[in-house]
Structure prediction request, 80 residues.
Amino acid sequence: MYKVTVVIKLKKGVLNPEGRTILRALNFLGYDEVKDAKTFKCIELTIEGKDKETIQERVEEMCKKLLANPVIHDYEILLE
Prediction:
């Protein structure tokens, strides 16, 4: 069994309205030292498999088919 974490972030240049809202709210509350806020999605999977290479390939497929939109997202796969 492997624990896999997929971190999905918006590509550079893609607007992040949730992050902008968080930044504005923090600044409004007096946290003026905060200059930027970005949000991302983290998905944890438990996967049964024989080896890390096969698991990595399967999760890559999952990201391309369902978990991430390749037009606006970058993703990172962390395997434990």
In short: The helical segments are 17-28, 52-67.
